[in-house]
Specification:
Elements: E1 3-9, H1 13-27, E2 30-36, H2 38-46, E3 53-56, H3 58-66, E4 76-88, H4 99-107, E5 111-114, H5 118-129, H6 132-136, E6 140-142, H7 146-155, E7 160-165, H8 166-174, E8 179-184, E9 192-199, H9 205-214, H10 217-224
Parallel strand pairs: 1-2, 1-3, 5-6, 5-7
Antiparallel strand pairs: 3-9, 4-7, 4-8, 4-9
Helix pairs in contact: 1-10, 7-8
């Protein structure tokens, strides 16, 4: 039995895992998946690491394509992820209808948590842009991954707030983490991250088939059910 390795951004975890499982069953190939942040994927591939299929934001994919490391014609659009505000499962959901309400909610918290991935970089820039970086100061907590955001919020009831990819929030809720999605970020400050799939240049033919499956219309229905549209 052949094995295909997938290197994927974590925000699309549930959808990638489900599509890979279906592909395994239909193709007879085993699929292993490693999930990481987009900056870490960029670093790992830049350092020479390879896989068979990659799922990453377009900026990362463009960089890897320029290095000649993917089959350009195998590249396809997977979906988009949006960000949301996470609170403890027992905490009242704050009003988040607009940017002013968002600022009030964050100023009233004990901690504001984001990660070091692409969404976390956006969150840091947003806090600075809204004048919240200095106002929150030591209350800003930076963790490594999306799951770590939810774990921190769950461990610090009732007032900690997380800024995270909605798809990652859903994964952690499914795992029993004591958090809930209060609301998406207000439209005027929403961050949308797109994801593409592609086969690595030296990968076997099965990798192209898997990349095509990840960007197929059937896969988009699977991703939509996980918060990726």
């Amino acid at each position: 039995m052949s094995t295909l390795k997938v290197l994927s951004a974590g925000a699309v975890k549930r959808g990638v895992a489900q599509v890979a499982k279906d592909f395994e069953r239909e193709s007879g190939s085993k699929v292993t998946i490693e999930f990481s942040t987009a900056p870490e994927i960029r670093r790992r591939v830049g350092a020479g690491e390879t896989a068979d299929v990659i799922v990453a934001p377009p900026a990362v994919m463009d960089e890897i394509a320029k290095q000649g490391k993917i089959v350009v014609e195998s590249r396809g659009f997977v979906g988009r992820s949006r960000m949301g505000v996470v609170v403890h499962a027992t905490a009242p959901a704050p009003a988040l209808g607009d940017t002013a309400a968002f600022k009030r909610a964050l100023l009233g918290t004990s901690a504001v948590v984001h990660n070091k991935a692409s969404s976390g970089i956006y969150a840091a820039k947003l806090l600075d842009k809204l004048g919240l970086k200095d106002a929150l100061a030591s209350r800003i907590v930076v963790v490594e991954t999306g799951s770590a955001i939810m774990e921190y919020v769950a461990a610090h009831p009732p007032a900690a707030i997380g800024l995270a990819q909605i798809s990652e929030v859903m994964v952690m809720i499914d795992k029993g983490c004591a958090v809930k999605l209060a609301a998406p970020l207000p439209d005027e400050i929403q961050n949308v991250t797109s994801y593409d799939a592609a086969a690595f240049s030296a990968a076997p033919e099965g990798a192209r088939k898997l990349a095509a499956r990840l960007s197929s219309d059937a896969a988009k229905k699977v991703f939509a059910a996980t918060g990726i549209s």
